[in-house]
């Protein structure tokens, strides 16, 4: 999982470079197409393509995929205006949105400790943003919107996973993403230089490798255990931002990041123990 976060950060660094020469939709259609090919291959080997496309809730599957397309496009767009570390410092609050939105969307119960962690985490986000200060950048709101979209995507993924196989969610994500981004790319397509073509090919490989690592990690342990390790993407983004783009985070942003990451880690810790209690209450099957 730690290696996966590094590769995801590398993916974002390549995307940031490409956004200066190509439209976001053109970058995304290549990335999603590579992912779709991987998903179709894995689904064919595991359950067969017909079974993979046979969703019990196709409407929810398509909705979650379109939501994720919007989030990735928003993330790629704002890379033009903000640094890697700054974006990830703000985006790190998405587990807090997951905890808060799980109540109205999934009917889950969130205890007072997790609510307190959510409130403290959002306070950390305000420390990073500093609304009203001279350093406030309106583009900083985009990663927060992306975090909301990603949180809803995660909750919808939880919902569809109760009825559809993992291979089905994987195939829908790749195919719907490629089709949706392709529709926008048609009218914006630009000639690709040899350098950009190489970077697009590298982006495709890196994207597939990152997701393969993530899937392997999820095979080995529970998602709730892995969640705190997702925050490793922030130091990777800081290092890549500094050495590749000459970016730095100021002390207030670092303080806010620590608060957000600490709150998100505590939310994951409480969720893990809640799940363990539920499992312990269920009697063993004969």
Short description:
By secondary structure, the protein is mostly helical. It has helices at 2-18, 24-46, 49-53, 58-78, 84-91, 94-106, 112-129, 141-161, 166-186, 194-220, 223-226, 233-245, 251-281.
Question: What does the model show?
Answer:
The chain is an all-alpha fold and 286 residues long. The chain has one domain (2-281). It contains 13 helices and no strands. It has helices at residues 2-18, 24-46, 49-53, 58-78, 84-91, 94-106, 112-129, 141-161, 166-186, 194-220, 223-226, 233-245, 251-281. The mean pLDDT is 89.
Describe this protein with a few key phrases.
286 residues, 13 helices, 78% helix, globular
Chain-wise SSE layout:
Blueprint: H1 2-18, H2 24-46, H3 49-53, H4 58-78, H5 84-91, H6 94-106, H7 112-129, H8 141-161, H9 166-186, H10 194-220, H11 223-226, H12 233-245, H13 251-281
Helix pairs in contact: 1-10, 1-12, 2-9, 2-10, 4-8, 4-9, 5-8, 5-12, 6-7, 6-8, 6-13, 7-13
Rg from C-alpha positions? Answer: 19 Å
Mean pLDDT: 89
Task: Specify the biggest β-sheet.
Answer: none
Estimated structural class: mainly alpha
Order of helices and strands: HHHHHHHHHHHHH
Shape: globular
Intertermini distance: 35 Å
Q: So how many helices? A: 13
Helix proportion range: over 70%
